[in-house]
Amino acid sequence: xxxxxxxxxxxxxxxxxxxxxxxxxxxxxxxxxxxxxxxxxxxxxxxxxxxxxxxxxxxxxxxxxxxxxxxxxxxxxxxxxxxxxxxxxxxxxxxxxxxxxxxxxxxxxxxxxxxxxxxxxxxxxxxxxxxxxxxxxxxxxxxxxxxxxxxxxxxxxxxxxxxxxxxxxxxxxxxxxxxxxxxxxxxxxxxxxxxxxxxxxxxxxxxxxxxxxxxxxxxxxxxxxxxxxxxxxxxxxxxxxxxxxx
Length: 246
Fold this sequence. Notes:
The chain is mainly α.
């Protein structure tokens, strides 16, 4: 009799274990066939080459953080200028030499894009060593403004601009949403003597707005070049208007 009870108990345990295995397998299957997340859908929407290109475009935007980590005064000392030169030239040389990782099919203006980006950044930062906030703001506008506009245009798409069907409202909005606050913070954090955040915003906003509008134009001039030159000329004007040259 005890053997029969033991047999029934073993049978129950085995059944319970089998049920657990089935449940575990079912749960595992459920996890495997679960729909992809929104993030993974966004990532899969663009090829890896385009994601590498976006990250490279954003890279010079770390300059404000780099300068904050280096104790310095205005005008920028030779050491700080060498750090800037090394970082920008390093990114640029890598971008040109490893062009195959970033270039789109049929693209012929990659080198112009890279050189133009670097030249404008260096011209502003090294040309105005007493006002590095100007160069940092322009760099951030190119990096995060133009970079986010392209990304939003590719991912979100949406309604086209009436004056350029290759550009979208999503891209224009992203340009302004990212460039204005980030460039304002970069300008405000670097300005010496310090200025109120409202003055930093007044200097940066017209530059970002002008650059965003120029980026949407249907012209043959490279985006980086026209965005950078427009932002640079505008912020020099607003600096003279609201702050002056101390």
